[in-house]
Design goal:
Oligomer: single chain
Strand order of the largest sheet: 14-13-12-15-16-17-18
Number of strands: 18
Distance between the termini: 39 Å
Helix content: 10-25%
Number of helices: 10
Length: 432
């Protein structure tokens, strides 16, 4: 990926403080600091030595650096690590950043290669090797300031030793060694983690990558859920979807897709600025995330149809028609309808008379309302207000543990209703 040239120290400090007030950590802070776009040259790769009979083949000079307990600073660099955190994909994420003075990268361009060895405490004889590369643009000799290169990996619970090195084309080396403890904190012990203990995986690059196969329950016990997914900015004035909002919404979909009791999916994805359904698939056995990602990438924000500008209530009318169609009587009736997406704040509420007249699906209706910063936006949004008509159950999702709790509660309720003749949802709670 291209190197990210960052702002001078004064702005660096200001952005760090801004990030801390927003509750950002790790990758979120890096995103706030960067002043150029990073594009991958090659994705992070786990080295596979299976074709060599499992014998590790690493260049001797690199292996000597990894084995050494001393930090090398041929390239003056500083490696700053973060405490591993569970993200919405239900994995621990270990993130680090490499800080290098720009003057030490001066020249007509370079390539930096990172090699990392991760040794799980539970499997000391089974180290994992990862490699990543960064291309460095031409940098003037008198350049000031610093460059920061982000890195990381995902893992299951456990203790890990990390040996890391970076080498440039002139064979200069920077190295660092640290240990990582991935342990659920208070309130996270019951989260459905997606990686087992002492397991390492690459840092995901694409939120819409394929979902790994799931071992489902027996066919006669599988549930069918319908998903309404809102891919709209939390702030209607924003001209783009925030990457962290998209990642969170897709992670929620992945969490639902991993539930062993759910075997059939119908999905309706929509965007409020364009006031259209961007993607639909009905009664399938898996969610086609790559196809959904293509649909999301084609959303064109920042332009508004002239006719919609003349009709200030067009967004409310679109949402009203969407809810009456997708939450009304269904044939066949799913076992549950789940709505998810960022908070949606419209100027006008959805008229409840129209929703009541259209009727309700005879199944539970849940709303997983993703709210990045509930302190600044604690109010019930337009969809949450409309769901009072359907007696839907709303969950506020801010942290991964909120998602874990919501999924567990929803599955219990779905299992209860699936063994009796379904009636209207009958839920009026709002789970924090």
């Amino acid at each position: 990926m291209d190197i990210c040239v960052l702002l001078i120290d004064t702005v660096h400090v200001l952005m760090t403080r801004l990030a801390s007030t927003r509750g950002l950590r790790g990758p979120g802070i890096l995103l706030a600091w960067a002043v150029c776009v990073c594009t991958p040259v090659a994705a992070q790769t786990i080295l596979n030595f299976a074709h060599l009979g499992g014998v590790v083949r690493i260049v001797n000079t690199d292996m000597a650096v990894l084995e050494s307990s001393e930090n090398r600073t041929d390239i003056p660099c500083k490696v700053v690590t973060e405490k591993p955190e569970i993200s919405f994909d239900m994995r621990f994420h270990e993130t680090y950043r490499v800080i290098i003075p720009l003057r030490d990268l001066a020249g007509t361009g370079d390539q930096l290669r990172m090699l990392m060895r991760i040794i799980p405490a539970g499997r000391p004889d089974d180290p994992i090797y990862m490699v990543d590369r960064f291309t460095v643009p031409a940098i003037e000799e008198e350049a000031t300031g610093e460059a920061t290169l982000p890195g990381g990996f995902t893992m299951g619970p456990g203790h890990y030793k990390v040996d890391w090195l970076m080498r440039d084309r002139r064979e200069r080396v920077c190295s660092s060694h640290w240990e990582v403890e991935a342990r659920p904190s208070s309130g996270q012990q019951d989260l459905p983690l997606s990686l087992g203990p002492h397991t390492i995986a690459e840092q995901p690059r694409d939120a819409f990558r394929e979902i790994a196969p799931v071992e489902r329950a027996s066919a006669d016990e599988l549930l069918h859920v319908k998903l309404l997914v809102n891919f709209s900015p939390a702030n209607p004035a924003d001209a783009s979807l925030k990457p962290w909002d998209v990642d969170a919404v897709v992670a929620i979909l992945r969490g639902i897709a991993r539930e062993p009791q759910i075997g059939r999916f119908s999905i309706v994805a929509f965007n409020m600025q364009e006031q259209r359904i961007i993607y639909r698939e009905d009664n399938v056995d898996r969610i086609d995330l790559p196809a959904l990602g293509d649909a999301v990438s084609n959303i064109k924000l920042g332009t508004v149809d002239f006719h919609r500008l003349q009709d200030p209530q067009s967004d409310t009318r679109f949402l009203t028609n969407l809810l009456t169609a997708e939450l009304g009587p269904q044939n066949p009736t799913p076992d549950a309808i789940i709505i998810t997406g960022p908070k949606l704040m419209l100027d006008k509420r959805v008229p409840q008379d129209a929703l009541k007249e259209a009727g309700s699906a005879h199944c539970p209706i849940f709303y997983l309302n993703y709210n990045f910063n509930p302190r600044t936006n604690p109010w019930r949004d337009t969809i949450g207000s409309a769901l009072r008509v359907y007696k839907g159950l709303e969950y506020t999702i801010t942290l991964p543990r909120d998602l874990g709790s919501a999924l567990g509660d929803m599955m219990l309720r779905m299992k209860r209703t699936s063994v009796v003749t379904p009636t209207a949802a009958g839920f009026v709670e709002n789970r924090p």
